[in-house]
Specification:
With 223 residues, this protein is of the alpha/beta class. The protein has 9 helices and 9 strands.
């Protein structure tokens, strides 16, 4: 979270497991925009104002009371969100995005599913300052998947190869092993691991734009 607060220039807020992987699937499945929010009260208020809004998110990984969906790509990958407005609130990714969006020149999300598109966008924009913000667990503790993704984006920018097979293997033994715990299956199924590491599946980035007051929306920019 400190990194999000200190970000400058063009900021890429990275959350692989699972916020900004989920966000790409939502947009790919037709959602017209995503409103990332930090506070649950804000999410519930937006739903009260517009019952057609879809609430999606988690705390401690688990689906929230009154929310339509949890933060799982596996559980929404086949859902048609055509023209729907999504309100998304998570423990790390959306928190960091809200902090960074209020202070930087522009903010995009980052995950493995669109990392090459992120690198291409950065090269196109050619910012004077670039901030890669790896959000980690609850925005407080470093997480390998987010650091690996940041390193991969850096390597793409600098023309270096990344051993993505090794990354997958390390994450399967490390931070990704929670997806294979039967106790987590209802809200964090094993397929989440595969979908979040479906490298470069999407050719777009999600860019934060002003919406109203202190709210932002994520919209698709196709590369």
């Amino acid at each position: 979270m400190d990194g999000a607060e200190k970000a400058e220039g063009l900021a890429v807020v990275i959350d692989v497991f699972r916020a900004f992987s989920v966000a790409c699937f939502l947009i790919n499945n037709g959602a017209r925009a995503i409103i990332p929010v930090a506070e649950l009260d804000t999410a519930y208020q937006l739903k009260k104002e517009n019952p057609e809004v879809v609430l999606l998110g988690e705390r401690e990984g688990k689906t929230l009371a009154g929310f339509d969906y949890g933060n799982s790509p596996a559980l929404i990958e086949g859902v048609d969100f055509s023209e729907q407005l999504i309100v998304h609130s998570t423990s790390a990714g959306t928190q960091g995005l809200v902090k960074a969006a209020g202070r930087t020149e522009q903010v995009i999300t980052g995950s493995f599913v669109n990392a090459r598109a992120v690198a291409n966008y950065i090269m196109k924009e050619d910012p004077e300052v670039l901030s890669l913000v790896a959000m980690g667990y609850a925005g407080q503790i470093p997480a390998d998947e987010d650091l690996f993704c940041a390193h991969y984006i850096r390597d793409l920018l600098e023309g270096r190869e990344t051993d993505l097979t090794k990354v997958r293997q390390q994450l399967r033994r490390g931070s990704g092993k929670r997806f294979f715990n039967p106790a987590n299956r209802a809200w964090s199924p094993p397929r989440d691991f595969e979908l979040c590491l479906d490298y470069n599946r999407f050719n777009f980035v999600l860019k934060a734009e002003a919406y109203r007051k202190d709210l932002f929306v994520l919209r698709k920019v196709v590369l």
